[in-house]
Amino acid sequence: MKDNIVGLLEDKLKKNFDIYYNFEYRGKKYDLFAKSHVKNIRTFLTKKDIIDCYENSEYIFVKKVCFLDINKVKSFVDELININKDFVKPNSNHMSTFITGFLIAENLTNDVKKFIKDFKYKKIYKFYLHGWSEVRIILVDLSCKEIIYSKNSKMLKRVLEAP
Question: Which Pfam families match (predicted)?
Fold first, then answer.
């Protein structure tokens, strides 16, 4: 069942993301890592006549764990916030960066679910002139087949639960 979840995620992501398995960053291992970088440029008459440009990035980290308690969840959240600091390079062309973390586990406790449901992290750079970034957490409980979303990840619900 666990590999099935990762396979489903891969199927949903493979069209728009570069996917890496057994990814390691700062000594932490992730079962799946996906990244997408989109650069939009509007031009006038020729390619050199640039009107404006903006960039959107998204990074997804998937980790399967056997046992999940509140300390492991907080550690995972801290990892993602540090990754956000490393991966986001705000500049005048940066619009947004999303760091999404998936934790896949069984038999989640209520305090873990509550922590995830209440979690929200957003950073604004120079009053939005250099864009913003968000860290989103999604928890998959395999025992009861439930998906728990953080406050700012609810927009992903339609994407993940679509056939």
Answer: DUF8052
Query: And the tokens for 43?
Result: 């031009």
42-95 per-position pLDDT tens digit: 999 999 999 999 999 999 999 999 999 999 999 999 999 999 999 999 999 999
Domains defined along the chain, listed by start = 2-161 (3.40.1350)
Angle (nearest 5°) at CA 124 between 85 and 13? 65
Q: What is the rounded average pLDDT of the residues 98-126?
A: 96
Q: Is the dihedral of CA 64, 37, 83, 29 positive or negative?
A: positive
The whole-chain average pLDDT of the chain stands at 94
User: Which DSSP string corresponds to 49-95?
Assistant: -EEEEEEEEEEEEEEE-SS--HHHHHHHHHHHHHHHHHH----TTEE
Q: Are strands 94-105 and 121-124 parallel, antiparallel or unpaired?
A: unpaired
The answer to whether 70 and 109 have CB atoms below 8 angstroms apart is: yes
Q: Which of 97, 104, 30, 32 is nearest to 58 (CA)?
A: 97
Dist CA 36 CA 18 (whole Å): 6
**pTM, two decimal places:** 0.92
Mean pLDDT value of segment 88-114: 96
